[in-house]
Write a structure and sequence with these properties.
Layout (H helix, E strand, L loop, with lengths): L2 H6 L8 E2 L10 H15 L9 H12 L6 E4 L2 H11 L7 E5 L8 H4 L7 E5 L9 H5 L6 E7 L11 H10 L3 E5 L18 E5 L11 E5 L1 H4 L35 H17 L1 H21 L3 E2 L13 E4 L3 H13 L2 E2 L1 E3 L2 E4 L7 H9 L2
Parallel strand pairs: 1-11, 3-4, 3-5, 5-6, 6-7
Antiparallel strand pairs: 2-8, 7-8, 9-10, 10-13, 12-13
Helix pairs in contact: 2-9, 3-9, 10-12
Length: 367
């Protein structure tokens, strides 16, 4: 599939320069058409087929590693991490280790455990907003039950060294939990190579789905340590007088989900497989090179860590040094149909595989 064919799948590219994928991916025609076909079966249920949960699980496993049954279908990243935090066997005096200023989906579920006497330890960021595995390792001890981190940080675009952090967690018998909302579909992830025990993500960002779609990966080892908290009809074998949970991640699923959305999402997952996440990531680095070079040349303050290329992603944060001027610049870009996010005091730029170098030039030319 060449550049023109890929861009033709995203109608927004004809109307604007879309640099807002960290907020959500624009709908592509494959997902749209799949959604419309499914809706037709709602109008006329003759010949309608049941939603195939296993198909979506299999696509996720091909993209992210592990077995298909290690994936539970959930509605969001927060729902997945909430299930884990509430189902984990954890006691007073135990602790959780994570970096400071993580996304709320990977902060609130753990802070909620403080009511049980669990300590939440925050590792400090470096001055450039990166984080060293050693900073996390210093906080881990024999009472650490979970080490958790975002694979890519929403507020800087920093890409964590998952393998190194996972090894530190496992040396002390802790579970390694990863929020991949801003990573899955954009950077290469392999749950086994990256030492991941638990992983949660959403469909509506880099995985080309819509709001209401998500997943929870739990390894066999971790599944023995995390109990289901909201079992529904898909969590166990059908029986009226006993609860026989599945012995894999299906036990974390509840009841009916938005089948229409999940069915359409599969088309987006297949597109990512066809293009290849390795190719997507290489393109992301090429574009971030251009962004960083251009922003530095124009004297803007770059919030994203830039020293190590392997710590970068498709997300770049910058500001003018003055909040009102940054807001005004964001308004100017929006008025010129360059779509991106004003995230706190920064402008967040997040191109994707359908973004061209010419579009990056258009963006830089408006600064």
């Amino acid at each position: 599939m060449n550049k023109e064919q890929i861009r033709s799948l995203f109608p927004i590219t004809k109307e604007a320069v879309y640099l807002n994928n960290a907020l959500q991916s624009p709908m592509n025609t494959l997902v749209h058409d799949s959604l419309q076909e499914h809706l037709k079966t709602e109008l006329n249920p003759l010949g309608k087929k049941a939603f195939n949960r296993d198909h979506t699980r299999a696509l996720l496993a091909k993209l992210l590693g592990g077995s298909a049954n290690a994936y539970a279908l959930v509605t969001s990243t927060g729902a997945g991490l909430g299930i884990v935090a509430q189902g984990l066997e954890i006691n007073q005096g135990d602790n959780i280790v994570l970096p400071e200023r993580e996304h709320w989906n990977n902060t609130f579920p753990w802070l909620n455990l403080k009511a049980k006497g669990v300590e939440v330890r925050f590792a400090k960021l470096n001055e450039d907003n990166s984080i060293d595995p050693e900073a996390i390792g210093k906080l881990i001890d024999d009472k650490t039950r979970v080490v958790t981190i975002a694979a890519v940080r929403f507020n800087s675009g920093f890409r964590a060294n998952l393998r190194a952090i996972g090894e530190l967690a496992h040396k002390n018998g802790a579970l390694f939990v990863v929020d991949v909302a801003q990573a899955a579909g954009m950077v290469p992830i392999d749950v086994e190579k990256d030492q991941i025990d638990v992983m949660a993500g959403c469909g509506f960002k880099w995985l080309l789905g819509m709001h209401g779609t998500g997943f929870l990966y739990v390894s066999k080892k971790a599944a023995k340590m995390i109990k289901p908290v909201m079992p529904g009809m898909f969590a166990a074998q059908n029986a009226y007088n006993e609860l026989a949970y599945y012995d894999d991640s299906r036990k974390y699923e509840t009841g009916t989900i938005a089948y229409t959305l999940f069915n359409a999402w599969s088309a987006g997952l297949q597109l990512l497989l066809d293009i290849g996440v390795e190719n997507i990531y290489e393109h992301a680095l090429e574009l971030s090179d251009l962004l960083i070079e251009g922003l530095q040349a124009k004297g803007y303050h770059i919030v994203t860590p830039t020293k190590k290329r392997e710590e970068r992603s498709a997300i770049v944060h910058f500001n003018t040094g003055d909040l009102e001027k940054t807001k005004a610049l964001h308004q100017k870009l929006t008025a010129n149909r360059v779509l991106l996010t004003l995230q706190a005091e920064n402008i967040r730029v997040s191109p994707n595989f359908f973004t061209t170098k010419e579009e990056i030039s258009i963006f830089l030319g408006l600064l």
